[in-house]
Each structure stands twice: as C-alpha cells, then as structure tokens.
Design brief:
alpha+beta, Aminopeptidase, GNAT_dom, 8 strands
C-alpha cells in the first residue's frame, strides 16, 4: 500500500529508521502528548524501536511529510486498521511551528485520495477537545458518525467514503 506522494509544496515518503530524530521530536510535542498520548519515546533508541514496531505491522503505514523548500520533516500522516474500528483510519500530526499553514490539509488530502482508490470507506478518530483536528476532518469531507469508548477516553469517530459517480 505504500507509495511516495507529492504536492507542489510537500513530499510524503514512507517512514524509515532515518526518521528517528524527527519522530523523537514529534511524539514529544505538547499537541501529540495531549491529543495522542505519551508513547514513552525518550531518546533516539526508543524512537528507532517505535519506528521498527510500525514497520513490522502490515496494517500500519506512516508517511513522513517533508517541505519541498528545505526537505525538512514537518509532520506525519498515518493510515492503519485498528482492531476496534470497522474500517481503516487516517491520522495526522505536525510539528507546532508548521500548524495553521495548510500543510496538514494538503498532506492528508493527497493520502486520502490515494487510499480511497483501494478502500471505499475511511474513518478518523479524535478527542472532542481537539477542535483543530475536527475542523480539518470536516474540511476534508469527513462527517461525524458516533462516539466510542476506548480505554479511558471518549473518541469521536468520523467517516468519509469514495464518491459515487
């Protein structure tokens, strides 16, 4: 399912061990810790183990989003099949200095278009207090489907599907 994707401003490449320093930074940002959770990635060796776990799972794909201007890694788009959801879901996280510039929408849109070629329905989950993710999902064409309980959290489940011709 993995393929490198490009927009005029961004290059999306599948996650590799060379992304360890970036992953270490990203998973320790305030937004990640608040809305996604602490993954216990405290140094580069933890980041390498985290990446290897992702790469070993055939149901998970992470694209690293890079700026075409300076080739800097700025965020990720995820696509995975979770055991508690009936369809694959898409996710996103960006370094805080790249928020509010349209990068998340641009990257998520190209991945969404790509995965909708193979999957008729895509889900996304978020916490109710994550207003910026909710706005982005709605802008991408997702609609609220239901609330679910997952561990200690109430998650909002959003859905989009392939447009019928």
């Amino acid at each position: 399912m993995t393929r490198n994707l490009n927009t005029s401003r961004l290059s999306l490449q599948t996650l590799t061990a060379e992304d360890a320093a970036f992953i270490l930074e990203l998973v320790n940002t305030p937004g990640w810790l608040q809305f996604i959770g602490d993954r216990n990635v405290k140094d580069e060796s933890n980041a390498l183990a985290y990446i290897q776990k992702i790469l070993d799972n055939p149901n998970v794909t992470y694209w690293v989003v890079k700026s075409n201007v300076n080739k800097t890694s700025i965020g990720i788009i995820t696509f995975m099949k979770r055991n508690y959801l009936e369809h694959h879901d898409i996710g996103f996280a960006f370094l805080p200095q790249y928020n509010g510039q349209g990068f998340a929408f641009e990257a998520a849109e190209i991945v969404l278009n790509y995965v909708l070629e193979k999957h008729h329905c895509i889900l996304a989950t978020t916490l109710q207090e994550n207003r910026s993710s909710i706005r982005l999902l709605e802008r991408l064409g997702f609609t609220f489907k239901k609330m679910i309980q997952r561990d200690e959290e109430q998650l909002m489940v959003y859905k989009t599907q392939k447009k019928k011709l």
